[in-house]
Design goal:
Structural class: alpha+beta
Number of domains: 1
Radius of gyration: 25 Å
Shape: rod-shaped
Strand content: 25-35%
Distance between the termini: 65 Å
Number of strands: 7
Strand order of the largest sheet: 3-2-1-4-5-6-7
Largest sheet: 7 strands, antiparallel
Helix content: 25-40%
Number of helices: 1
Length: 131
């Protein structure tokens, strides 16, 4: 007799092995995605900090200057003759708001959205945590 195909036991064994592999890899994949989102958030905040540093130095600002971020716009508060000046920042962080202070080149910041909160106490290192 010439046998073709697989037995039910063989098919169940393959399905069981695939299920175990899926159970092992799913959390790993979701962890990588979450790490990627957090890293993207942190890089955007660091980019904003760089734009603020360039603005502060390019225009010879002194003392403490306040910058605000909301609605995907980065603004230097009362920098343009007493009115707000929108800075050239092309990044986006959905639903984020933040405040930056540049005190003679030392930048402190707090930026947050629904998922993350980033801070820098002036050390130059952005620390991001999940909410």
């Amino acid at each position: 007799m010439n046998k073709k195909g697989f037995t039910l036991v063989e098919l169940l064994a393959v399905i069981t092995i695939l299920a175990v592999i899926a159970l092992i890899t799913t959390p790993i994949i979701f962890g990588v995605v979450e790490d990627s989102r957090m890293n993207s958030f942190t890089r955007s905040v660091e980019e904003m900090r760089n734009v603020i540093d360039m603005d502060y130095n390019e225009y010879g600002r002194n003392g403490t200057v306040t910058y605000k971020y909301s609605n995907n716009k980065l603004v230097c508060v009362e920098c343009d003759g007493g009115s707000d000046l929108e800075l050239d920042f092309t990044g986006e962080i959905d639903d984020a708001t933040g405040t930056f202070y540049n005190n003679d080149g030392k930048i402190t910041l707090t930026v947050e959205n629904n998922a993350y909160r980033a801070t820098d106490d002036g050390s130059g290192e952005v620390v991001t945590v999940k909410k």
